[in-house]
Write a structure and sequence with these properties.
Helix content is 35%, strand content 20%. The longest helix is centred in the middle third of the chain and has 26 residues. Strand 14 and strand 15 form a beta hairpin. The N terminus is likely disordered. The chain is built from 16 helices and 18 strands. The protein has 506 residues and is α/β, with parallel strands linked by helices. The protein starts with 28 loop residues before the first strand and ends in a 10-residue tail after the last helix. The protein has 2 domains: 132 residues, 3-Layer(aba) Sandwich (Rossmann fold); 277 residues, Dihydrodipicolinate Reductase, domain 2.
Length: 506
């Protein structure tokens, strides 16, 4: 089940507004700004369809696509239909339900960053009920966030039940993030601003909280006395594809670490919240982000790795390098990184956190590895490696714990590793929802626990910026790694220096 609490975090009750039918479905207006883009077609509309199919959405709801393209409603619904055919799972696809869902979809041709444009078409689509949730989802370039908020306010479309959802990245550094937060904050309160990070919508990321705080056996060893180090890996087997121009201006550090992976790190490392509420959970995440040891020039030189994928072979096939994919002669943008981080709290004193992410790697995986410390003395001569707890965020969602066990096939007292493994899909016999399904409905309800608060964004940028500047000054030179590998050798050396190795799932 997704996590639920109200917008203020003061209660466990859901404050939604709007009307519900007998099934508990809610009615709302949802305006998608940038509605012809890839994110809308690939993620948002399929997610809404799944929510509709599960009867979470009342049939008087309006999902209003807004973009500059001069499409008719029929044209847009035809595009949406094609997107649903391509991105909805076969097991969920039903023609009659698709047609019913498409009846909720509207379209308005409008540049929503232009406050002086003709807004009558959009205004006509919106309900006049003041308590009906009205969500503006801004799926555009970040530079348009403030002009769009200005225009929405200028045209008097903000109600007490309105919210605005901002896609990451929130800026490119501390200064631009502050500009966006200040600009949008002139018109929307903090409780109305939902900064989305789709990793927080993943059930397996949310489950980190359940594993830690609902299982005392784990929470009591979740500290420096028992844990030697933590690894957080997000590896992809694809290149930059059509995102090349955006990616070259961002790089892996901005694209993955500043948001997704620092959010995962904060969930793994945070203290137990006082209460299960949005405010308390985000307070504890913020403390961890602020406790990250600042990176000096020396740390950047010795505790970071940055690299770019070059030409390589996968299954005998030649894979082009980043520059070929980008179509540019040169670039210093990193597609791979590894960082050794430290958290300055009593719980984590002396425990390194290793973060790595990369494109065109050997395996697709997002995992968290908790490496436990060895026994202080060994009574067996063939001790296996110390236990590891592995949280598989994607794919093959689940959790596994390696333990030492006597080998029953051995005539002597020999040990071997045994793994206790839980495959979540099999264990719960259910479809794992896409992360956007929870996030979209949480925004409708005004439930902020799965979203990022302003001070979290600023704390993340504060830690990231020195690394960005150090790399710009070439304090840590850019390396090249072959496509289809697990990154450069220097990444392995980063852990070997402390006596550790990366956990590689084969």
């Amino acid at each position: 089940m997704p996590l639920r609490m109200d917008a203020t975090g003061s209660s466990s009750k859901i404050h939604a507004g709007g009307k519900r039918d007998n099934s508990g479905a809610v009615a709302f207006d949802f305006v998608i700004v940038g509605a012809t883009g890839d994110l809308t077609m690939r993620k948002l509309l399929p997610a809404f369809y799944e929510c509709f199919r599960r009867r979470q959405i009342e049939k008087s709801t309006k999902i209003i696509g807004v973009a500059r393209s001069g499409l008719s409603v029929e044209d847009y619904r035809a595009r949406a239909h094609e997107a649903l055919k391509g991105f909805v799972a076969t097991s969920s696809y039903d023609d009659a339900t698709i047609q019913d869902f498409l009846g909720l979809v509207e379209y308005v041709s409008l540049d929503m960053s232009d406050k002086d444009a003709d807004w009558t078409g959009l205004r006509a689509q919106l309900s006049t009920e003041r308590d009906r949730p009205r969500v503006f989802y801004v799926a555009t370039a970040p530079k348009l966030y403030v002009p769009t908020a200005d225009a929405i306010a200028h045209n008097e479309l903000i109600t007490e039940s309105s919210r605005i959802v901002l896609e990451k990245p929130i800026g490119t550094d501390q200064a631009t993030a502050a500009e966006i937060n200040d600009g949008v904050g002139q018109h929307f309160t903090e409780e109305q601003i939902f900064r989305i990070d789709h990793y927080l919508g993943k059930q397996t990321v949310q489950n980190i909280l359940a594993l830690r705080f609902a299982n005392p056996i784990l929470e009591r060893v979740w500290n420096t006395d028992s844990i030697a180090h933590v690894q957080i890996t997000a590896a992809e087997t694809v290149g930059v594809g059509k995102r090349g121009p955006y990616y070259d201006s961002a790089g892996a550090l901005r694209d993955m670490v500043q948001n997704h992976l620092l959010q995962v790190l904060s969930l793994v490392a945070m203290e137990p919240p006082t209460a299960f509420s949005a405010m308390d959970l985000r307070d504890e995440k913020l403390k961890i982000l602020r406790a990250l040891k600042p990176m000096s020039d020396h740390d950047i030189a010795t505790d970071t790795v940055r690299a770019q994928y070059g030409e390589g072979h996968v299954n005998g096939k030649l894979i082009p390098g980043y520059l070929d994919d980008l179509g540019a002669p040169t670039s210093t943008t990193e597609t791979y990184l590894a960082i050794r981080a430290e958290i300055r709290t009593a719980r984590w004193a002396g425990v390194p956190f290793y973060i790595r992410t990369g494109k065109q790697m050997a395996r697709k995986e997002t995992t968290v590895v908790i490496q436990f410390r060895p026994q202080p003395w060994a009574i067996f001569t063939d001790n296996p490696e110390p236990s590891q707890l592995v949280l598989r965020i994607q794919p093959n969602e689940g959790v596994s714990l390696s333990l030492a066990s006597k080998d029953p096939a051995s005539e002597q007292y020999r040990l071997r590793e045994a793994v206790l493994d839980v495959d979540y899909v099999k264990a719960f016999n259910t479809r794992y929802p896409d992360s956007y399904e929870d996030l979209l409905m949480a925004a409708v309800r005004g439930d902020q626990v799965l979203f990022i608060r302003r001070d979290e964004v600023e704390a993340s940028w504060r830690w990231i910026e020195p690394i960005l500047h150090g790399w710009e000054e070439n304090i840590r030179p850019l390396e090249i790694y072959p496509a289809g590998t697990q990154g450069p050798a220097s990444s392995d050396e980063l852990l070997a220096r402390d006596g550790f190795v990366w956990k590689e799932n084969t």
